[in-house]
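Box 3.1. Reading complex inputs
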Amino acid sequence: MPENTDSDTFLASDAFAADLLRGHTDTIVLAVVSQGESYGFEIFKTIRDATGGAYEIKEATLYASYRRLLKDGLVEAYWGDETQGGRRKYYRITDAGRAVYRDNVGAWEITRGLIDTLLDLGRPARTGTTRPGRPQQ
Amino acid sequence: MPENTDSDTFLASDAFAADLLRGHTDTIVLAVVSQGESYGFEIFKTIRDATGGAYEIKEATLYASYRRLLKDGLVEAYWGDETQGGRRKYYRITDAGRAVYRDNVGAWEITRGLIDTLLDLGRPARTGTTRPGRPQQ
DNA sequence: TCGAGTACTTTATCTGTTACAGTACTCAAC
DNA sequence: GTTGAGTACTGTAACAGATAAAGTACTCGA
């Protein structure tokens, strides 16, 4: 786990990633459950671990997302049969959910292209003849 | 100008790009004015044209952004000296604005990486060894 | 003079995020 | 035996950015 105290590179994560990820939460949750059924807190951990701890989604954000996805029929939920210990609510993606997930990934790719293009406007003019190249990595 | 009625490829643009660009508006405006002074409506057109008409930011969104940028001292404004015809309010980026712009581009690059990583969770396991290619164009 | 285009602005509403608060169980440590 | 950390789920209130809608005002060609 990265220390959040000294490293400049880590500044980035929670500080602004949170704001800029707005609107993507539902798609991210669909990405996780499209891999297989999972329960609320496990989805939280999956997201955290997939980003190496860089992005820790807020619980309230996540549960608000579950509510939307359920309301729209994109996931189904059921209680696990843990007879002792904390109850777990499992989420399963529906066919509608898979379709929306695919659409949203497409939307993201378009959006990513748009933002890349627009932010490129601010780069100092290049000397070459071709379209603005993206800096590799 | 693209007709918005028949083309499927155009569906993408206004429909959802708008929502997903949330939080990036100020950075996009900074990108435009970091190229040189510009006035409100011209910035609107620059953004529209840079995306080939795919993304037409809403005026209200844009003017709300100007207000924020002014309040934070990231741009300065002055009225042009158009003696006849419609008045134009010009915006000029400040040093603080340039610094914030650079930071925000960095933030975008990190965010882009995070979302790419997270949405990748939902892809079926790949057989090859390389990263997923981006569809060209 | 009528409509389309240019140009700027404000107000009210909507939505996603999140701080905060709360409930409830388990398990290891003291 | 209770304290604290971790797991797990939920609701409420407040905030911020986006935007529909409406308005003001000028220009120019038909």
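In summary: Chain A touches chain B at residues 12-13, 16-17, 19-24, 27-28, 30-32, 34-35, 46-47, 50-51, 54-55, 101, 105-112, 114-122 (CB under 8 Å).
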